[in-house]
Amino acid sequence: MTLLGLSPWHLWIILAVVLLTAEIFVSGFVLAGLGFGALTAALGHYLSGELGWALAGYCAGALLFFVAIRPIALRTFMRGDRPRFGVHGMLGKQVTVMDSPALGGGYYTVFRDSRWELESTDDLMDGDLAEVVDVRTSTLIVKRVAR
């Protein structure tokens, strides 16, 4: 059986290349496992010439990838904490406390080009260093770093 002059095992290889290429755009090594299964299906179909062996090779290859190879790849390539973005990326950062020029205006800081109001249970003074411990709407909750 041929389709456009290609044997079925060629189609399995094309499917594998498409899936492995698509893995670049999707995280988690899921499409890579399906691509690996398609490669084993191509091998099974090439050696036997039967669709049954190709499907068995696909199932065995994908199962082998998801049980043995994927956990090792995840441990190797997905190490460490995930990078925190947005306001969650501010936690633990140090800011400089500034006194508001307005009468009774409280304290503020400029962080990433934005002005943030500050709240703290510590006594703050203009020029103190403070560590961000929480973010509530447009207010940073901070604790003073030892002077």
From TrEMBL:
Residue ranges crossing the lipid bilayer per the database entry: 12-39, 51-69
Keyword Transmembrane helix appears in the UniProt entry: yes
Record bears the keyword Transmembrane: yes
Gene3D superfamilies (alphabetical): Nucleic acid-binding proteins (2.40.50.140)
Record keywords: Membrane, Transmembrane, Transmembrane helix
SUPFAM superfamilies reported for this sequence: NfeD domain-like (SSF141322)
GO cellular component: plasma membrane
Domain of life per record: Bacteria
InterPro entries: Membrane_assoc_protease (IPR052165), NA-bd_OB-fold (IPR012340)
PANTHER family given in the database record: INNER MEMBRANE PROTEIN YBBJ
Entry protein name: NfeD family protein
Organism: Mangrovimicrobium sediminis
